[in-house]
């Protein structure tokens, strides 16, 4: 049985990616769940795949479910569509969009096809993690539910840093007149 390895790039930073391995007879629903797991996203929102070309243009849609949209071509359904059935060339690309409000977009590229070697691996699986992925719900998800925003206040001593209340320097008595004596005059600069 063929095992496909997809490199799943976060669209906004191609240094952030996950390599996902999956059997060619598994479905796009399996791939959908594997990507969410690889990026540590929850499974509470809708998602869709698009078959793509080398220019990352969106082609045939492979949707989580049927939506009430006007389609030129009816989308395929993830649970009913095997990944192998949508592979058209050796470096096949897909675009994956998750959470249509936040519009998380990932670019998938087929980077390797091998035979299944070990029955120890449960497919789909994440084989490589590169870079810190985006946080689905911002900083709060990174730090946990008990995170509380804390406003930091600093007590700065008055007039101890060399500045007065108006922001002007104190303690230095240099003026422009004293500095002007060091500058060359036009007469000294003329060439004979």
List the helices and strands and how they pair.
Elements: E1 2-10, E2 13-23, H1 28-38, E3 47-52, E4 58-63, E5 76-77, E6 93-98, E7 104-115, E8 125-130, H2 139-143, H3 176-180, H4 186-189
Parallel strand pairs: 4-5
Antiparallel strand pairs: 1-2, 1-7, 2-8, 3-4, 3-6, 6-7
What would you say about this model in short?
The chain has helices spanning 28-38, 139-143, 176-180, 186-189, and strands at 2-10, 13-23, 47-52, 58-63, 76-77, 93-98, 104-115, 125-130. The chain is α+β, with helices and mostly antiparallel strands.
Task: Give a written overview of the molecule.
- Helix content is about 15%, strand content about 30%.
- It is an alpha+beta fold and about 190 residues long.
- The chain has a single domain (about 1-135), classed as Structural Genomics Hypothetical 15.5 Kd Protein In mrcA-pckA Intergenic Region, Chain A (Roll).
- An eight-stranded mixed sheet has the order 5-4-3-6-7-1-2-8, with helices on one face.
- The longest helix is centred in the N-terminal third of the chain and has 11 residues, at about 30-40.
- The protein is globular.
Distance between the termini: 89 Å
- Describe the strand arrangement of the main beta sheet, using strand numbers: 5-4-3-6-7-1-2-8
Query: How many domains?
Result: 1
State the helical fraction: 10-25%
- What is the helix/strand order? EEHEEEEEEHHH
Structural class: alpha+beta
Mean pLDDT: 81
Quote the CATH topology: Structural Genomics Hypothetical 15.5 Kd Protein In mrcA-pckA Intergenic Region, Chain A
Q: Measured on Cα atoms, how large is the radius of gyration?
A: 30 Å
- Assembly type: single chain
